[in-house]
Design goal:
One of its GO terms (cellular component) is ruffle. It comes from Lingula anatina (Brachiopod). The protein is mainly β. The protein has two domains: 4-301, Deoxyribonuclease I, Chain A, CATH 3.60.10; 311-447, Immunoglobulin-like (Sandwich), CATH 2.60.40.2840. It has five helices and 23 strands. The strands form five sheets. Strands 3-4-2-1-11-10 form a six-stranded mixed sheet, covered by helices on one side. Strands 13, 16, 17, 20, 21 and 22 form a six-stranded mixed sheet that branches. The protein has a five-stranded mixed sheet with strand order 5-6-7-8-9, with helices on one face. A hairpin with a 2-residue loop joins strand 6 (115-127) and strand 7 (130-138).
């Protein structure tokens, strides 16, 4: 897989509700949309339920972004929330079988770790054979709190532990992207002088006074991480609804609070060097919702050349909504399955992995397969009472909730229309060719 592009966005939304459109923020005017979006928000408005760290109900921002990105062909693969701190990852639909081992973690650092108004949330996943970790953090506020911000970062790095044996911590991953309202300010220069330098586009003179830049040079935080040049004006603090820096009685100094950095372990694989190239790093001044401007960056990363998903479905022609239906899939050698795995029926334009119509559990035996194994599953008539339309099947890892294989898109039709249906599956195919299905190997059938 080459030219795999990851779009990162961080925005402190200041407890405001989402806008109607995000076309410019998400780069929809580009002819080449990214493969993955990772959206990190801070100060998302919410009530008591926002203390829950994983989604029970979507917050308005996640609902809006999911709807917008689904319209562009993206599926939400994971989201995590810690009070006002939200991180959500989306990928193009055809990448789903190659985005595996998805997990999330969170760390509270506010009030000595008792409250989640500050802290960090993260999502890790494997993509085409390499592992990626994305962190969204909101560190301690105020000009003088540099030591507290560094401590917040250290607590996040030390406390977050994943179940993946090869990558138990954030810094163990091949690619790490760290973004958020890091809250670092500009030292030693009066507010009026900073504003004058911004108007004169003399940003480079401010860099040496940026607290994060100085702390990184002293190797106190984000050691070995990289950051692109700060060629955009400081993203904080604005009068909401304007492009004017803070005119309140506090007259806070402008600062680059909102940042995106990255780290690549280039030599993770023998004979193959990983790399991440930053395509852009900018703020979006047209968004005036809060006292922060959103900041985005796009990275082009190198992945391994993996083209075959672990689970392959045989082509499906059509199903009748008034009858039972059968699907056949194969499990590659070396793939480990579980009794928690299931096959979900989804509408073709499903928004996230919980957006299924119905499901059946994957048949036993389970464990690590020593040969290619074929399985047959039947969906009962009672579970297919759904409206006619375009659908697909997904084999879901029930432990970590990710897709291991997808079928082609097929039609579910009325019983009296079945004779008129096409004799070939839809050209929108997620599974392999029919030759990829070893229907003669250890075939077992289940009716669930």
């Amino acid at each position: 897989m080459t030219n795999f592009r990851i779009y990162l966005c961080t925005w402190n939304v200041g407890n405001k509700f989402p806008l109607k459109k995000f076309d410019n923020l998400l780069g929809f005017d580009s002819p080449n949309l990214p493969d993955v979006y990772a959206i990190g928000l801070q100060e998302v408005k919410g009530g008591t339920a926002s203390i829950v760290t994983s989604y029970v109900m979507d917050d308005p921002w996640t609902s809006k972004l999911t709807k917008i990105l689904n319209g562009q062909g993206y599926v939400r693969i994971k989201g995590v929330r810690l009070q006002g701190l939200v991180l959500t990852v989306f990928c193009k639909r055809h990448h789903l079988p190659f985005m595996t081992n998805i997990e999330s973690e969170y760390t509270r650092s506010g009030l000595g770790g008792w409250w989640g108004n500050k802290g960090g949330v993260s999502i890790r996943f494997d993509a085409y054979g390499v592992n990626v970790c994305i962190v969204n953090s909101h560190l301690a506020a105020h000009l003088e709190a540099v030591a507290e911000r560094i401590e917040d970062y250290s607590i996040i790095v030390e406390s977050q532990q994943f179940r993946e044996k090869e990558t138990p911590s954030i810094l163990d991953h091949d690619y790490i992207f760290w973004m958020g309202d890091l809250n670092f300010r500009i030292d030693d220069i009066p507010r009026d002088d900073i504003i004058r330098m911004i108007k004169n586009k003399d940003l480079e003179s401010l860099w040496s006074h940026d607290q994060l830049t100085k702390a990184r040079q002293e190797e106190l935080i984000l050691v070995d991480f990289e950051e692109g040049p700060l060629t955009f004006p400081p993203s904080y603090k604005f009068d909401p609804g304007t492009d004017h820096y803070d005119t309140s009685s506090k007259h806070r100094k402008p600062a680059w609070c909102d940042r995106i950095l990255w780290l690549v372990h280039e030599d993770s694989f023998e004979g193959f060097q990983l790399a991440a190239r930053q395509e852009h790093y900018t703020s979006h001044s047209e968004y005036k919702l809060s006292d922060h401007k959103p900041v985005t960056s796009v990275f082009n990363v190198k992945l391994l050349n993996i083209t075959r998903p672990a689970i392959q479905f045989a082509p499906i022609f059509s199903w009748s909504k008034d009858g039972s239906a059968t699907c056949v899939y194969s499990v590659d050698m070396g793939v480990k399955t579980s009794s928690w795995d299931w096959i979900g029926l989804y509408k073709a334009n499903f928004k996230h992995l919980y957006d299924y119509v119905t499901y059946v559990y994957a048949p036993a035996p389970h464990g690590e397969h020593t040969a290619v194994v074929s399985r047959t599953v039947k969906f009962k008539k009672s579970s297919l009472r759904c409206s006619p339309g375009s659908y697909c099947l997904c084999y879901i890892n029930g432990d970590k909730m990710f897709v291991r294989g997808m079928s082609n898109v097929f039609k579910i039709i009325d019983a009296d229309s079945s004779s008129e249906d096409s004799s070939s599956p839809s050209s929108s195919s997620y599974g392999g060719d029919e030759s990829d299905i070893d229907t003669g190997a250890n075939n077992e059938e289940t009716d669930i």
